[in-house]
What does this fold into?
Amino acid sequence: MSANSPTAVVVLAAGEGTRMKSALPKVLHEICGRSLVGHVLAASGELDPGQIVAVVGHKHEEVEAHLATFAPDVRTALQPTQNGTGHAVRMGLEELAGGTGSPVSGTVIVVCGDTPLLTGATLRALNDTHAADGNAVTVLTAEVPDATGYGRIVRDGVSGAVTAIVEHKDASESQRAIREINSGVFAFDGQLLTDALGKVRTDNSQGEEYLTDVLGILREAGHRVGASVAADHREIAGINNRVQLAEARRTLNDRLLTAAMLAGVTVVDPATTWVDATVSFEQDAVVHPGTQLQGATHIGEGAEVGPNTRLKDTSVGAGARVDNTVADGAEVGEQASVGPFAYLRPGTRLGTKAKAGTYVEMKNASIGEGTKVPHLSYVGDATIGEYSNIGAASVFVNYDGEAKHHTTVGSHCKTGSDNMFVAPVTVGDGAYTAAGSVITKDVPPGSLAVARGQQRNIDGWVARKRPGSAAAKAAEAASRKPDSEA
Ligand code: UD1
Ligand code: CA
It folds into this structure.
């Protein structure tokens, strides 16, 4: 907490969000890899407040469980019934006072849990204006193209000072023409807020305690009321339905991609590229169309990912190439090559210049430097050394129906196509295996393992068993050709 930091941030997250038409509480819906309330908490954290309290109500157990994992330092206050935003803030302040009954001093910032586009910078500007002007309350406002549904900012015709906030449902025809709206975000003097909330009434169209009434109450008591106008009205958009959820996702995605591009990342098609807020890039990374990057994914310098690729919690090393791939919890080494059409599951680690090629699935597998698994293979629960080559269509048979077992293949091995490595089994350094082998026993270093049935040719079988067939005729014709052509 620094000198200008607020004492507390109160996040309102008790509402049901009826218009989402969802079993999931509204503030738990996600955009760009984070819940709506998660984005609000991240922005709030940038203010370095003394405490953050989230007011919860509708399905509060679910919201509390989410907060306990996402933001364990955040306290929660229960608002048992949703009696309005003023009532919600009152519950938050009671939790902060910790039953002492003494009002919270210093600045209290109030934000809504459903405004995921709000930035820390805008909150800082609000907090600074509030402190610099010595206000009792400062409301964050914005001019919007369509103010329907929002509380309107009523200003004095002469001085331009904010006099009141009037809810849409309670507004007159002329007030509804106002396009400056209440964002629902405020900076308050904590003590004055506590006093004023005690005076808020419920004689409005919704029969609720409106937080917005605090403005008028403080103004009439002779306190300073101010406003901070947001530079970009899209930042304060509250999400009420799934259309707005999609719009906000698009806006936030554009913001994240713009920041990446300005930092030196090539995004070939921003319209079909989707990133989470937690994804990071190095300079000269290239992202091809149709790519989704999620969670803690990191794309190294000069690496190319996509097209049509989804990477979650995956790190891609410098200069690596990942094409038409799905990966989750994988580590791709520098200059490694993945795909097209690879599936890397948790615990996959590809070394420098290693390869997981076409139609290759890997799980809990460590692939050494320069080792290649180029075609049609499953590698599960395995360790492979350096500069080995795994033949096409090989399966690391890791599951016996009860438990998973491990396979180790050494360095500089060449295993044949269509091998089954029945774990637990070890192939030593420099060993070879024959095509079609089912490897059930350890192969010593430098040996060739052959583990397949001997071939037996039964002469004349087709002529005897399939007389007159096309196969029999072809065989007959072949037998009449001179040896050199047969
Ligand atoms: C509110 C404001 C309105 C503003 C708009 C901005 C009031 C009275 N109105 O209207 O001026 O333009 O936000 O989006 O404040 N909540 C609770 N407990 C409650 C009621 C609400 O926690 O009892 C929470 C909701 O979960 C939500 C936030 O408060 O996060 C705002 O509530 P909502 O019902 O969406 O308010 P609006 O009617 O949109
Ligand atoms: Ca409402």
About this structure: The CA atoms of residues 277 and 302 lie 21 Å apart. Residues 263-449 form a domain with the UDP N-Acetylglucosamine Acyltransferase; domain 1 fold (CATH 2.160.10.10). The chain has two domains: 8-236, 263-449. The longest strand covers residues 355-367.
